Amino acid sequence: MAVSARYFTDPLCPLSWALEPMLRRLEVEFAGSLRIEPVPVGLYREPVRDSEDLLSRTRELAEVARVTRMPVDPTLWLGSDPPRSSHPACIAVCAALERDREIALRLLRRLREAALCGERRVDSPLALVECAVEVGLSREGFERNLESNATLERFAAAIESARQAARDAGGLRTTPLLEVQLGERRLFAGVDEGGGVERLLASCERLLSELRAAGLAIGEAPPTDAAAALARWGSLSTAELAAVTEWPWPRAAAELWRLVLEWRARPLLVAGGGALFRTQ
């Protein structure tokens, strides 16, 4: 029987992008035992307010790249026309949840890649529909869900759920926040407002240790083949492949670039350095 987890997040949240390698690890280690439900919480309601807000958002992106080596475009909030809000992307995830959890997780990932790797803005209906179609949603059905009152109500409920969970966790940030219901116990991983990437990752490592100690069923052995891992997820960074295979960074990077040389993968080079690798 699967243990339920809620993942409070936002497609444009830099710290959530930092957690992607950990989520891949959880997906492999506890396959079939841990069921993660995404809960989009609306981190950025408004555009960048002033230079201090701009500096804070950009600094967080840079910290994610420095600590995790995930590919990040640090110019997300710079320029003459940055994203106005992350709420449209959150509403899109809620619209996908009207269909099912797995497709919502795929859309959440696609929106993250588009925004944080600098491919496109994801705050317009057209961009959201394009991303949805790319992960297998029907255009007409998704457009209906995107405009429905049920989707907006789901988003409003998600925001309130995130606030309550953050309070229950002792005042942590609403995103990213992992909540695992383990029998009578609720386990949390996240950081408070002063916490950064390193403290977030340490919190998740503690959660991982608690799940192991609780005897949660081990799912799968780590992948041993880069091509199979890439085929499974469709896109991977070097940090993610290293996390799921337990390979050292140089080997993970070499294996992904070998697939590129063999025309079995294509790299998306990201402005801040690094690359995201996708199936051909």
Describe this structure in words.
This protein is of the alpha+beta class and 280 residues long. It has 2 domains: 3-213, Glutaredoxin, CATH 3.40.30; 226-279, Arc Repressor Mutant, subunit A (Orthogonal Bundle). It is built from 12 helices and 7 strands. It has helices at residues 14-18, 20-29, 51-68, 87-97, 101-116, 125-134, 139-147, 149-168, 197-213, 226-233, 238-245, 249-261, and strands spanning 3-9, 34-40, 177-182, 185-189, 235-237, 265-269, 275-279. The protein has a 4-stranded mixed sheet with strand order 2-1-3-4, with helices on both faces. A 3-stranded antiparallel sheet has the order 5-7-6. Helix 4 (87-97) packs across helix 6, helix 4 packs across helix 8 and helix 5 packs across helix 6.
Short synopsis of the structure:
The chain has 280 residues and is of the alpha+beta class. It is 52% helix and 14% strand. The chain has two domains: 3-213, Glutaredoxin; 226-279, Orthogonal Bundle (Arc Repressor Mutant, subunit A), CATH 1.10.10.10.
Fold blueprint:
Blueprint: E1 3-9, H1 14-18, H2 20-29, E2 34-40, H3 51-68, H4 87-97, H5 101-116, H6 125-134, H7 139-147, H8 149-168, E3 177-182, E4 185-189, H9 197-213, H10 226-233, E5 235-237, H11 238-245, H12 249-261, E6 265-269, E7 275-279
Parallel strand pairs: 1-2
Antiparallel strand pairs: 1-3, 3-4, 5-7, 6-7
Helix pairs in contact: 2-11, 4-5, 4-6, 4-7, 4-8, 5-6, 6-7, 11-12
